[in-house]
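User: For my dataset I need records formatted as: sequence, then structure tokens, nothing else. Please produce one.
Assistant:
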Amino acid sequence: MNHSPTEKIHKTDAPMEPIVNRRDFMKGGAAGAAAISFGALASNHANAFSQDYGPVAPVADDITGLPLLQLPEGFTYRTYGWTGQMMQDGTPTPPAHDGMAVVAKQGNTVVMVRNHEVRGGGNAVTSPAVYNPAGLGGCSNLMFDVQKGQWLASYMSISGTSTNCAGGLTPWGTWLTCEETTATYGDMTHGWVFEVPGFGLADPTPIKGMGRFAHEAVATDPVTGYVYLTEDAGSTSGFYRYRPNEYGKLLAGGTLEMLKIKNMNQVAMQNSHADGTSWDTEWVTIDDPESIEPRNFTQGFDKGAARFARLEGCWYDTGLVFFASTSGGGIGRGQIFAYDPRREKVTLVFETRNENTHPVSPDNLAVSPRGGILVCEDRSGPLSRLIGLNQIGDVFEFARNNIDLSASDIAIADAHFPGVANAIDPGSYTGSEWCGATFHDRWLFVNLQSPGITFAITGPWNQGIL
């Protein structure tokens, strides 16, 4: 039987494995994770990982030869998925690369699902899985051979959504893509979460039980299957959880709740607090998750739930859910919290108190296989960085955006990735934000939102906390 290019990249005879395995986690780590206090965890990581990787300097892309990034000595990278690059399904790669994660693997091949934060209405990107013909956002899937260090393929896995900002991986090998808008285009509403498989195409049906609001990111607890969600809505942002009625069956219904500080009402978490401050927590139910009048936040806040400032990145690791408040803290330049679901406690890990020495406006974040936290900055101005952070607050610069493209540079990129010259203009992109950081073994995959490029970075990770 003959197969189309799309069918070939969707199908394989090798067994698919999720990146997070619930059974193995429960056998080997759940009890330990539940017993570890945050202080002990921070102390353990501090003893194991204390140093950075040295100063950054321009490094040439292994594919194009262009010096797109500044990295420490010994680190290299390979680009792929440039905006405009023709994908294997015949669709040009959409712009505005954002949240992403390695969600599944088959043999040496890992697959990432990547968001495209395209706003507004118009004509949806061509895809067999379209939610709204008038939605401009969506997700593309990328495959990479971790043994050979080679990019393999990409294709559109869902389209017709809008403003796909971040999301998160699940323990069963899928990606939850989040819409950061509550707009209506045509006669279809947005503000939902959709589930995208690692291999294949999405069912473009919104998981309405997870609420309609300015979604940002999610993290799933592999033991319970509960999904934790952040909201990016200024100073009136909530931290939510979705308790599905059945493990792994998110469309089958569940209960949406919002975090509350125990025995305290409407606590302003965006205020300045000492690093390491902890609060006992409980949850209040959102009675009408599909409503935007009143907002999900208002429903929870009226019951005493806590409020944060612009919640963005969210990541599960070692029994904890880490999440970032991009504009929280005393100077309004960022906080990172850790929620412990077994102890029902939330802890302030880090607050930016000095813009010159600390990460500024933390956005997407990821925890490395070695226990370090990698923070994507979303700061205004020409300096855009990836910041390493250990769990007691030591910070360092790991990477800097160095993209400044001339017409000849774009021609070079187009020679490797046909279609780029039709989609990218010359200019400096050094202020563009980092997005979608995700680790797998010796590889860090990450995006720069504009002009829209995905990077696979490798190097001497064991020399530092990442």
